[in-house]
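Researcher: Here's the sequence for the chain we discussed earlier.
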Amino acid sequence: MSGMRTLELARSISDDLVALRRELHQYPELGLHLPETQRRVLEALEGLDLGVRTGTGLSSVVAVLRGGADTDGDGPVVLLRGDMDALPVTEQVDVPYASKKPGLMHACGHDLHVAALVGAARILHAMRDELPGDVVFMFQPAEEGPGGAEPMIAEGLLTAAGRPVDAAYAMHVSSSEYPLGQWFSRPRELMAAVDRITIRVTGAGGHGSQPHRAKDPVPVLCEIVLALQTLVTRTVDPFDTVVLTVGRIEAGTRDNIIPESGDLSATLRTFSAETRDRLIENARRLATGIAAAHGLTAELTADESYPATINDDDEYALGRQVVEDLFGPERFTVRPLPEMGSEDMSFVMQEVPGAYFFVSACPADDYENAPDNHSPLAEFDDSVVPDAAAWLAEMAVRRLRAGTAAGAGAGAASAAV
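Model: Thanks. This is the structure I predict for it:
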């Protein structure tokens, strides 16, 4: 079976993949422009028969592998993705390959993702004569913001093989919650959409000793914060999951000065576009109404950052089957509920059916209390890198053999047997 072959190939290059991961970990970069990371990815792909191009507006890498068994050149196309960016976090993990850049850290494990995707490219390159279609490898900057998937799509990612992508897959490591090596995901809703909301309240400044001669935005902002919480609990069905968090409130320069204006910033996380639109409009009405009641004005702006990440039913079923075939049924757990974090792989999965899976890289026995992703204390065990590479490669092999999107449902199931 292909599963045994992909796993054997992954383990045969494990040392190289771990070395790449540790090198990347020492040199983290932020955002859309990752020149050092891009260079290391290009070096890691050297010697492979790939069509490689780099982004123009961002430090992306897109590599296309042509399957040798696709004699007509019209076989299916599978996309595999690995995000590359780090976080503005000061590392507090005592490892010999710790970050050499003060204030920057691969605290979310994207260095493992890059190494796994390079591994998948090497595995599939070794199997290319057997592949009845093409594979697109998506090395993506700025998942942590401002978002790299959308500009990569705009630069032609989904037609990089010369015809549209039929299915797309991604995985993410976790530093806590599940024991080392455990895979988890769920059908349908997996991660929420996120909007960033800003409300500016404008009044009239004055001296702190004479508040009656001013129009103070501070108590109005406080009222709006409390009212936003009630807005969620009293206008949204409790089974329609919504999280609204006010993370910043800012006004004034000194304790005896009433400021002219003040701002708050919040994130709104939803799974339903209808609920999102209704809540934003209700929040706008609430803020302007509260401000008007005090003789002030309020202006709300909302920027949709990432859509919800929704697993396609057939692609999720294939992903689960691949985990169970490669590693055993006991290594997969169905996540009971979606999580309210967000992920810009959702832009790809809006365009093509796809699946997104997690694997625990937590080295601690007490995994439930281990530091979470994004923590300066987050640790990731290298042993999951070859497993992740094998999963990505096997997903491509089986999906290509399953055929075009029209036949993927039945084909994926039969290929997984």
